[in-house]
Amino acid sequence: MTTRYKMTMAYDGHLFHGFQLQPDQRTVQGTIEDALKKMSKEKRIIVQGSGRTDAGVHAIGQVIHFDYPGKTIPANRMILALNSMMPTDIIFNNCEIVNENFHARYSIKGKWYRYRVSLDHFVNPFKRFYTGHFSYALDVGKMQEAAKDLLGKHDFTSFAASGGQIEDKVRTIYYVNIAKDEKENEIVFDFIGSGFLYNMVRIMVAALLEIGNGRRPVHDLKRVIAAKDRQEVRQTAQASGLYLYHVFYDEIPQKYRQDRHL
Amino acid sequence: MTTRYKMTMAYDGHLFHGFQLQPDQRTVQGTIEDALKKMSKEKRIIVQGSGRTDAGVHAIGQVIHFDYPGKTIPANRMILALNSMMPTDIIFNNCEIVNENFHARYSIKGKWYRYRVSLDHFVNPFKRFYTGHFSYALDVGKMQEAAKDLLGKHDFTSFAASGGQIEDKVRTIYYVNIAKDEKENEIVFDFIGSGFLYNMVRIMVAALLEIGNGRRPVHDLKRVIAAKDRQEVRQTAQASGLYLYHVFYDEIPQKYRQDRHL
């Protein structure tokens, strides 16, 4: 008998070699599986994430599931037990017992990524692990206008780094918001979509920054999408600015369905 | 011939063993002196800070001075040269050529320290190096009321950790502000004073948190100050929440002279 747990977690990615288990590397999945192994005395309890995050990428709302053997541990006890075994760069914020139809990856309805870009002239020591950095002129209005071209269902081949193993490059972007955080002197990009290809958010951010800086025409992304060629965007924004912000397992709320207005 | 440079800097203290030079330890002073040695080919150029910061303590506006030998390098060149040699956890934000009457420590008119306390239920992975942490109930109004008892000229023996070498424990606190940052879910403490004893800010914060939590009467600090006994406050808030925010070399602006109303 096993019990399936769905857990929501945040992690500071800067000291991890990404989410996915790799031998002899410090990874998020490996850290959790080590704890579950100690707790359960099992050989291995597989942790399934909503998806991978790369080395240096952070999570505010990553979701995992796993099947824990033996007598059911209440959810509030499970979260305390696991948090007590986690290093300080991982925290579980929520735990639910779910039925076996729930799958952290296959049950996804959408994902929300956030990307933070610091505009400080010099790289701010307090943000070096937590933001990207762009100290050239930026027109936020141009980026907002350009972002509309990303909305809806498209083949995003031009925004997929090699290394992804997925053949089908069609995804739907539901929502894009680009805003200046005056207090932090940052630009905050939010993207909600059905899913994202390998490095897709970081490549979209790089392209939008080029538009904001005037190096690309405002509506160039239409052409880039149509080209289906990764060579159209050679830049990838740094891992340090990227956050897996939320995973949707219910329908995307209407307020985030900008694509409905297309 | 030497030229005296005054430089303002920020650093993320979490990977330093404090400001002050120590053999075989990574320190802020040591890092800067190493760079100056390489630049100048001198045996040693002494870096004088406005004061020390402990291991894990941060700076937004630390100030140093040093005397650089040979032909004068313009200030804008000096800052570029030094920043290019710094690790990413140190940044120089300002550089001025000053006359030999200026001394980073002896010319001080006052110092501003900030202390950040995260109220998150669990320790937030993104704040573990950058805030203190207090997850019990807090009454900000009580702390604000209590802080008034710190204003003015007092013997702060009760707030001085052993380890300080200074005999005279009289200091003047000009300004205290305690505010909730709703967005960050933090309490931010600001203290401006003529100077601060060893660990004084962290001990004051610990005492104020006890008052905010109701473990001490609101006006207990009057009694604590009068007692001149460190045993009156046994706690010291964590280093991770403390920032040397600004050093004043001119008279403290009137808006920060709350002590004038006493």
TrEMBL record, chains A, B:
<comment type="function">
    <text>Formation of pseudouridine at positions 38, 39 and 40 in the anticodon stem and loop of transfer RNAs.</text>
</comment>
<feature type="domain" description="Pseudouridine synthase I TruA alpha/beta">
    <location>
        <begin position="10"/>
        <end position="107"/>
    </location>
</feature>
<dbReference type="InterPro" id="IPR020097">
    <property type="entry name" value="PsdUridine_synth_TruA_a/b_dom"/>
</dbReference>
<feature type="binding site">
    <location>
        <position position="113"/>
    </location>
    <ligand>
        <name>substrate</name>
    </ligand>
</feature>
<protein>
    <recommendedName>
        <fullName>tRNA pseudouridine synthase A</fullName>
        <ecNumber>5.4.99.12</ecNumber>
    </recommendedName>
</protein>
<dbReference type="GO" id="GO:0003723">
    <property type="term" value="F:RNA binding"/>
</dbReference>
<keyword id="KW-0819">tRNA processing</keyword>
<keyword id="KW-0413">Isomerase</keyword>
<comment type="similarity">
    <text>Belongs to the tRNA pseudouridine synthase TruA family.</text>
</comment>
<dbReference type="GO" id="GO:0160147">
    <property type="term" value="F:tRNA pseudouridine(38-40) synthase activity"/>
</dbReference>
<dbReference type="GO" id="GO:0031119">
    <property type="term" value="P:tRNA pseudouridine synthesis"/>
</dbReference>
<dbReference type="InterPro" id="IPR020094">
    <property type="entry name" value="TruA/RsuA/RluB/E/F_N"/>
</dbReference>
<comment type="subunit">
    <text>Homodimer.</text>
</comment>
<dbReference type="Pfam" id="PF01416">
    <property type="entry name" value="PseudoU_synth_1"/>
</dbReference>
<dbReference type="InterPro" id="IPR020103">
    <property type="entry name" value="PsdUridine_synth_cat_dom_sf"/>
</dbReference>
<feature type="domain" description="Pseudouridine synthase I TruA alpha/beta">
    <location>
        <begin position="146"/>
        <end position="250"/>
    </location>
</feature>
<dbReference type="InterPro" id="IPR001406">
    <property type="entry name" value="PsdUridine_synth_TruA"/>
</dbReference>
<dbReference type="InterPro" id="IPR020095">
    <property type="entry name" value="PsdUridine_synth_TruA_C"/>
</dbReference>
<feature type="active site" description="Nucleophile">
    <location>
        <position position="54"/>
    </location>
</feature>
